[in-house]
Design brief:
This protein has 338 residues and is of the alpha/beta class. The chain is built from 10 helices and 12 strands. Helix 3 links the parallel strand 3 and strand 4.
């Protein structure tokens, strides 16, 4: 029987057509009228549909036949063992799938899951760079001077010559380091053991051996696991250099958010750049909204127009590996959480 690929979240029709052409050895099922309604081009969550009885029956039939899924089932994802007995592999659309996979019962390697690691690296590196330049080149000051119609001489800092610590030297952390290195920033990367990192990192170091006071910039790009939950606590934030900038591209719970808010209000940190928060969505009235020297993205920094094309390129490469029995790219390991 030919592998049956079920696409479980929105994609542009031309990308689906390209997939069918590029990998003719599989059957592809794409029924956008049965999927959540996307709010933007790269929306893989969307607004859930209220399916009528006939549509539910059709979707259940597709689930039952699927051997491969692009994204997790949106309808009843926790019932995948019941609904999809032939399922062997899910290509996720997120880089960090640990919490989502665990919540859906994917904890024992019953099926293969591959992540989207690397797809979002460049957009997130751009976001980190934009946030750092916002503070280092004093763009808020320029804005206030323009509003007040004041033409004043002065000087700002520069990224060139600064030193950054990248916590998490995976695809995102490595892309951030490459981007910052191009700007003249010296980057160290953390490792879990004795692994030695090459370029773009100048030095490999374990988190336990870090002197956070050495760094002008700290970028968090690690997965959320039991080990990294609360990783950047009050003590580690306090150990950072006065005026340093903290960037979080990981997950909200990696940071002690109350400690971060206190450090920004006290002026200990020069700024923070967050793509994530706790909780999400952040409710009205939450203290983070009123925190000074903070850039806050609603977990959308990786959402760019080219995302789906990059996802389909990764999925196509993995499909070919699947058909030839080769090792899949970005295999998720539930025992490690990433």
């Amino acid at each position: 029987m030919r592998p049956q690929v079920l696409i479980c979240s929105y994609l542009q029709e031309d990308l689906v057509g390209k997939l069918i052409t590029d990998v003719p050895a599989v059957d592809v099922v794409y029924r956008p009228e049965l999927l959540p309604v996307p709010q933007f081009g790269a929306d893989h969550w969307g607004k859930p549909r209220e399916l009528v009885e006939g549509q539910i029956a059709e979707w259940r039939a597709h689930l039952a036949e699927a051997t491969i899924m692009f994204d997790f089932d949106w309808w009843q994802p926790r019932a995948w063992q019941q609904h999809s007995p032939n399922l062997t592999w899910i290509q996720a659309t997120q880089a960090g799938v640990g919490a989502r996979a665990e919540a859906m019962g994917h904890t024992e390697n019953q099926i293969r899951i591959t992540t989207a690691a690397g797809v979002h690296a460049k957009p997130l590196a751009e976001f980190a760079l934009a946030g750092l330049l916002y503070f280092v080149r004093e763009l808020p000051l320029l804005g206030s001077q323009k509003d007040a119609q004041r033409w004043e001489n002065g000087a700002s800092s520069t990224l060139y010559g600064q030193k950054a610590l990248i916590v998490g030297a995976g695809s995102i952390g490595s892309e951030v380091a490459r981007t910052l290195s191009f700007m003249g920033v010296r980057c160290d990367g953390t490792t879990r053991g004795s692994r030695v990192l090459g370029q773009p990192f100048e030095r490999s170091i374990t988190l336990q051996d870090c002197d956070f006071g050495e760094y002008d910039i700290v970028v968090l790009a690690c997965p959320l696991t039991e080990e990294t939950n609360g990783l950047f606590d009050k003590q580690r934030i306090a150990a950072m250099r006065e005026g340093a900038i903290l960037v979080n591209l990981a997950r909200g719970p990696v940071i002690d958010q109350e400690a971060l808010i206190d450090a920004l209000k006290a002026g200990h940190l020069g700024g923070a750049v967050l793509d994530v928060a706790t909780p999400e969505p952040l409710p009205t009235g939450h203290p983070l909204w009123e925190t000074p020297n903070l850039i806050l993205s609603p977990h959308t920094a990786a959402n760019v127009d080219a995302e789906n094309a990059r996802l389909m390129d990764l999925f196509t490469r993995n499909l070919r590996r699947y058909l030839t029995g080769d090792k899949l790219i970005n295999s998720y390991e539930p025992f490690r959480g990433y």
